[in-house]
Design goal:
Number of strands: 15
Order of helices and strands: EEEEEEEEHEEEEEEE
Largest sheet: 5 strands, antiparallel
Number of helices: 1
Strand order of the largest sheet: 4-3-2-1-5
Distance between the termini: 62 Å
């Protein structure tokens, strides 16, 4: 059994018999009142995200999980379809709530780490960095070269992020999926 001192982000626990993933963990110390832990958790069965506080008397069972590599295939009518890397005929589906914050970073053929709880697919985690093509980018304004100036662009998945002014439509950029921030330009679009 785990105590509140063992809690950490991304950990998967059983709470009231259901699997939950910790998204945020904040420790609170209240002088003589003792301590507590404030968390944001996601129910891996329903995808619902909410806040919950735990006291020192609370204890938790760590969920029996299995991690597997899957490949993201496509999105259709609110369902995201994934397949096993070595057995493409073995397919799984998740809805947007279950997929959580991974959906903006998934394009077909993206490898993901899948978490199975009691043999059922519960959630997926994209790679920490992904390469996505810029589909829409306003031109950088001449003279707008203040240190660190950025502009908003649209990626091939439909996600909008802030990038430096030199990034143009057609460029391929590397994005950190944990922070949602631009990391670097991988390929420059051909001129013409």
């Amino acid at each position: 059994m785990l105590s509140i001192n063992d809690l950490a982000p991304k950990m998967i626990l059983l709470i009231d018999g259901h699997p939950y993933q910790l998204l945020e963990v904040k420790r609170l110390h209240m002088g003589r009142g003792g301590s507590s832990v404030q968390t944001r958790i996601r129910n891996l069965t329903t995808g619902q995200v909410f806040s919950r506080n735990f006291k020192p008397a609370d204890s938790f069972a760590e969920a029996d999980i299995e991690k597997r590599e899957l490949i993201y295939l496509y999105h259709h009518r609110g369902e995201y379809v994934l397949a096993e890397k070595d057995h493409p005929q073995q397919r799984y589906t998740l809805n947007a709530e279950q997929l959580g914050d991974a959906s903006p970073w998934l394009k077909p053929a993206t490898p993901v780490t899948a978490i199975f709880v009691d043999g059922a697919l519960a959630s997926v985690t994209p790679p920490i960095k992904v390469e996505l093509k810029v589909t829409e980018a306003p031109p950088g304004l001449r003279g707008d070269t203040v240190s660190g100036a950025t502009k908003e662009v649209t990626l091939e998945t439909g996600t909008k992020i802030q990038v430096p002014l030199f990034v143009n439509e057609g460029d391929v950029v590397r994005v950190n999926t944990e922070t949602g921030e631009y990391a670097e330009r991988v390929n420059k679009a051909p001129a013409g």
